[in-house]
Amino acid sequence: MNGKTVMACIEAAHATLKEHTDEIAALDQQIGDGDHIFNLLRGMDALFAMRAAIEAEAFAPALDQAASKLLSTVGGSSGPLFFSLLHGMAKAAQNADTLSVADAARIFAAGVDAVAQRGKAGTGSKTMMDVLIPVASRFMELAERSAPREAVLDALPRTAEEGMLATRDMLATKGRASFLGERARGHIDPGARSSQLMIGAVCARLAQYRE
Ligand code: ADP
Ligand code: MG
């Protein structure tokens, strides 16, 4: 993993968000203020504008540069949360440019922990945490069982999808949707959907690499 791989993952995440813009905008109009996807796309565009700088870096500093740019461009609740994810991963990654499944699981879990600390939400609050936490747990579990890389890249998108779908029937206790009470039930959380899509796209992209 290096800056080029990080940029390839950003590209994959961007492509799926573009493809699902209208859907995510509609979800956020139902239970939020409608800006989530546009906040995220603004951040992604800013990352593209600094492509050469990200690609020139090693893995951890590439993640960190992307994190800082997201913090200054995304805004909303999700900007600081996505910053925490990438910054938390960068801190845990340090010099690890060649990652084992176990390293990658530990790094991702550190990022998700940082998001949880920032947003103070666990699972069950109808947020992106309903995707991120189960994916981090499943990742650790697969690493402990020494699952091969391909099996991990195949399993995590399915865990992400289950987590995203589970938000549909939840009451929201964090973020704007929490003001809606029962009216939030029956709607998938937009941040859970965007996170799930990005995880799926990044896994598919990484599956194209040999290691
Ligand atoms: P805002 O709510 O400020 O408009 P965004 O539209 O950028 O923020 O993002 C909304 C998404 O952020 C929600 O769909 C939810 O997934 C996520 N979110 C909101 N609050 C939290 C939190 N405390 N912890 C984790 N995720 C959260
Ligand atoms: Mg919003």
Automatic annotation (TrEMBL):
Keyword 4Fe-4S part of the UniProt annotation: no
A Gene Ontology cellular-component term: cytosol
PROSITE patterns xrefs: DHAL
Record SMART domains: Dak2
SUPFAM superfamilies: DhaL-like
GO molecular function, one term: glycerone kinase activity
Keywords noted in UniProt: Kinase, Transferase
A biological-process GO annotation: glycerol catabolic process
Domain of life: Bacteria
Domain DhaL: 4-204
NCBIfam families registered for this protein in UniProt: dha_L_ycgS (TIGR02365)
UniProt-recorded name of the protein: Dihydroxyacetone kinase
